[in-house]
Design goal:
The protein is an all-alpha fold and 58 residues long. The protein contains three helices and no strands. It has one domain. Helix 1 runs antiparallel to helix 2.
Length: 58
């Protein structure tokens, strides 16, 4: 599984591509993809916060 930081990087890549896109449909799709990557990052952060680390389990 990727890390939240990686998901945020994917979102940033989508936003950069969106800025370069000429077609409104493509821009909208890339924006939606960026938003979804950010949602994945938030979920991964919440999951990591709720999962006890190896040290906490001992």
């Amino acid at each position: 599984m990727s890390t939240p930081a990686a998901y945020r990087e994917y979102a940033a890549d989508c936003l950069a591509a969106m800025r370069a896109a000429m077609l409104p449909e493509v821009r909208a799709l890339l924006l939606a993809m960026a938003q979804r990557w950010n949602e994945f990052a938030e979920r991964a952060e919440k999951q990591a916060a709720s999962t006890p680390s190896a040290n906490e389990r001992m």
